[in-house]
Specification:
This protein has about 800 residues and is α+β, with helices and mostly antiparallel strands. It folds into four domains: about 1-140, no CATH class; about 170-325, Jelly Rolls; about 340-685, Peptidase S8/S53 domain (Rossmann fold, 3-Layer(aba) Sandwich), CATH 3.40.50.200; about 690-800, S-adenosyl-L-methionine-dependent methyltransferases (Single Sheet). The protein has 15 helices and 35 strands. The strands form eight sheets. The protein has a seven-stranded parallel beta sheet with strand order 17-18-16-19-20-21-22, sandwiched between helices. β11 and β12 form a beta hairpin. The two termini are about 50 Å apart.
């Protein structure tokens, strides 16, 4: 059979017209166009099989497993499903690869798809294989198209006064504060072009009245400056370098703005750090030179270098209080950024919930893993060490901290935008300059993207290594060509939910733009349903996505460019008769009814995060401001890691519900089409997650047993209640249940591991069929970390 399928390939001349009629509906127009223009080039494409896994059935099948085990079991099931379904396709792809027609291929088992980079003849041949629904073009896009950051981010300058660490050192080897007004013999400087160096009292010294400054002597004229210290360290075995550094609004120049050291008299130099990102404020920098493999010799050299073309303080660097010692005490922790405070993150850290134990996946442009605020947060794959072998069998060799899908390698260090999102998720302030991360105790895995299908690959990778939650500030907009494959985004997201993972996504910055019309103003996958159905929302399907809008950090006003709802889940050809992608009619569950918006559709966005000038990490070790829903989203991504840390048993529906019901309502009362449910308040949300009572069965026949798994603070006393309706039941001196006439089912204590179980029997009463039993628990944590009674979310069991 395979030979007969490949026969058309053998007959095709390289210059033949690509017009195979039988493949017209399979190969989509956007792909066919590039194949026609360049038939010999290899084009990126994804292939979607007709047979698809049943996400709802899979969710039920694996729901009993803990999240990590569930994701691994689900991944194995999906791999097996796709291997069977794609057997002929994979065999053909292997042969075409050996013949040079395909340069790269990868199974996307997360939604029974397959990716290739192939020439036109190979794509036509694959299109003839039975069982393929369609093949679509997957172009590598300019990152700016996918990123949801404003084209120009306002730079906010904040003054911060530096202070010397002062005490705790055993031995100081060298110290220079430039107060003498001149450099000693141990110092050397060089300049080229218009480079200039001086000891001056201008531009705000760090301490005392003078500091050393380098810049250009003439605006618009480029120059370089170096400052080199030669010092005898031959008697030392451990050395740390500390200095005060100020970036005088200088643009970072890779390879030129750098700190280096030499142990061979200046013949070779080893990079110690990039010099960037203090934003016109002095920061105290500290480097442990022992970690760089240097020999401490009598002519040990340290060199600071600068390059640019304007005078201070438009460009330039300043240095002060340069010191070498065997030890410096760690800098005092920086204060949390205002956006973190407004989201209540420090309040949650104060009771020991900082993201520890959670693995958060950043799906973006890659991340600078060496940034001092991120280095301790980077996740390491325990099952795939770097040895050239795919030890964990997930299809990605040596994926020890993530995967680069744009380059198909294990180094997702592209940085830029992704370093900024990472800092808001987990930046822990280890550099002593800024505390930028919502979840500074969480571990961060990283995936780097280049195309729409890369997004699905990244979510697949996350399942394969069992991350807890994920966040992406890349999105796919209505005007794209080809248009976003909305149904594929939803299919992937349903599988992510089946794995017990919640995903946060940006929603674009095109609010109010006629080129991005509602109900497609919110970009994909931020327009995909979430795991919890809000009470204002008509029932429909669920998936994994929280779509994130923005609130300006400066004045708490709505970030007006945020994408706006509702979102439409119905026949997309109502809006675009030539929409190219296949559609799953079961996803036509949130109709809007056309451009006039006569129906409600899906309420989106879901929740708001701070943006429009928030400080975060930047490549090279510095910090800069950030904006757009690209900035709002990692706040919510970090919030989900905090929720996992608050209670590892929390399911995506619990996390979504807790964040939304605890949000600060803004705009119209309730969930609206600009703010969603409001601004995330993570402390309040966690108070609804620390204690949970989760029925093991969501449906139960009369006469059957129902098991409720209770979790919360170790050894705490709890009471489990039930009711046939929602309402209010006041518990004197404790608080209010969300149940009408709640009845007590059990009083007991949680175990030392914070667990307990209740088993009840549904009465064998036919009148109960079709009823809903609501369950809620309250536990006593008055003497614990929270100092209060903790009420669980309400859960329900449908009686059959």
């Amino acid at each position: 059979m395979l030979q007969s399928l490949l026969l058309p390939l053998l007959l095709l001349s390289p210059q033949a017209s690509i017009q195979a009629d039988s493949n017209t509906l399979v190969v989509k127009p956007e792909l066919r166009e590039v194949m026609h223009i360049a038939p010999l080039e290899h084009h990126r494409a994804y292939i979607v099989m007709t047979e698809q896994p049943d996400a709802v059935a899979l969710r039920e099948q694996f729901a009993h497993l803990p999240r990590g085990e569930r994701q691994l079991a689900l991944s194995a099931e999906l791999r097996s499903f796709s291997e069977t379904s794609q057997a002929t396709l994979r065999e053909a792809a292997s042969l075409l690869t050996s013949q040079g027609h395909i340069s790269w291929s990868e199974p996307l088992w997360i939604a029974n798809s397959f990716r290739v980079e192939a020439n036109a003849a190979a794509i036509e041949t694959l299109a003839a294989i039975p069982g393929i629904s369609y093949i679509q073009y997957d172009p590598m896009r300019d990152p700016m198209e996918m990123q949801d950051i404003p084209l120009k981010v306002a730079i906010q300058q904040r003054a911060s006064a530096g202070t010397s660490s002062g005490s705790g050192r055993a031995t100081t080897y060298y110290f220079e504060d430039f107060e003498s007004g001149s450099l000693g013999a141990e110092w050397a400087t060089t300049t080229t072009g218009c480079g200039r160096e001086q000891i001056t009292s201008s531009f705000g010294p760090y301490a005392g009245s003078k500091h050393w400054v380098c810049d250009s002597s003439s605006d618009g004229c480029y120059g370089t400056v170096t400052l080199t210290l030669t010092v005898d360290l031959s008697a030392q075995s451990t050395v740390q370098l500390q200095y005060a550094f100020k970036d005088l609004n200088d643009e970072f120049n890779t390879g030129s703005d750098i700190l280096q050291a030499s142990d061979d008299g200046g013949t070779t130099w080893k990079k110690i750090a990039d010099l960037t990102g203090s934003n016109n404020a002095y920061v105290l920098m500290n480097h442990d030179l022992d970690t760089f493999g240097l020999n401490y010799v009598s002519n040990f050299m340290i060199r600071w270098s600068w390059y640019d073309n304007y005078s201070a303080d438009t460009d330039g660097f300043a240095f002060d209080n340069i010191e070498l010692a065997d030890y410096f005490p760690p800098p005092p922790p920086p204060s949390p950024e205002p956006n973190l405070v407004k989201h209540q993150a420090p309040d949650l850290w104060g009771i020991g919930i900082d993201g520890s134990g959670a693995v958060l996946l950043n799906i973006d442009s890659g991340t600078d893993r060496n940034h001092p605020d991120l280095a301790n947060r980077i996740w390491t794959n325990p099952n795939d060490p770097v040895d050239g072998v795919d030890n964990d069998g997930n299809g990605y060799v040596d994926d020890y901290w993530g995967w680069n899908f744009s380059g198909n390698n294990n180094n997702p260090s592209g940085g830029g935008h992704g370093t900024s999102t990472a800092g808001i998720m987990v930046g822990d302030g280890s550099g002593g300059v800024r505390q930028t991360g919502m979840a500074p105790g969480a571990s961060l895995a990283v995936c780097q993207l280049g195309s729409e299908a890369d997004h699905w690959g990244a979510l697949q990778w996350g399942l394969s290594v069992a991350v807890d939650c994920s966040s992406s500030s890349y999105s796919y907009k209505w005007p794209f060509s080809p248009r976003p494959d909305y149904h594929q985004h939803r299919a992937v997201s349903e599988i992510v939910l089946a794995g017990g993972q919640i995903h946060c996504n940006s929603i674009g910055n095109q609010g109010g733009s006629s080129s991005y019309p509602i109900p497609f103003n919110i970009s994909a996958p931020g327009n995909v349903p979430g795991p919890w159905i809000h009470p204002q929302q008509a029932n429909g399907g669920i998936a994994a996505v929280l779509g994130c809008s923005g609130i300006s950090v400066g004045d708490d006003t709505y970030y007006d460019p945020s994408g706006r709802g509702p979102s439409a889940w119905e026949d997309i050809k109502i809006y675009d008769s030539s929409y190219p992608h296949s559609q799953n009619q079961s996803y036509w569950d949130y109709p809007v009814g056309g451009w006039g918006l006569p129906q409600a559709g899906l309420l989106k966005p879901d929740i708001a995060g701070y943006t429009d000038g928030c400080y975060t990490t930047s490549d090279g070790g510095g910090h800069s401001t950030f904006g757009g829903t690209s900035c709002a989203t990692p706040h919510i991504g970090g919030a989900t890691a905090l929720m996992v840390s608050a209670n590892a048993r929390a399911e995506p529906r619990h996390i979504s519900e807790a964040l939304q019901i605890a949000a600060l309502d803004k705009g119209s009362v309730g969930k609206d089409l600009n703010w969603g449910s409001g601004v995330a308040k993570v402390y309040d949300a966690a108070m609804r997650l620390i204690h949970l009572a989760i029925p093991a069965q969501r449906t139960a026949p009369i006469g059957s047993n129902v098991t409720v798994n209770i979790s919360g603070p170790a050894n705490a006393t709890y009471g489990l209640f039930y009711s046939l309706s929602l309402g209010t039941t006041t518990l004197p001196n404790i608080g209010d249940l969300d149940l009408a006439s709640g009845k007590l089912a059990q009083v007991s204590n949680l175990s030392a591991t914070g667990e307990s179980t209740f088993i009840g029997v549904v009465p064998n009463n036919p009148l109960l069929v079709g009823k809903t039993v609501y369950v809620q628990s309250v536990c006593n944590d008055l003497a614990g970390a929270t100092g209060q009674a903790l009420f669980s979310l309400v859960e329900k069991v449908e009686i059959q």
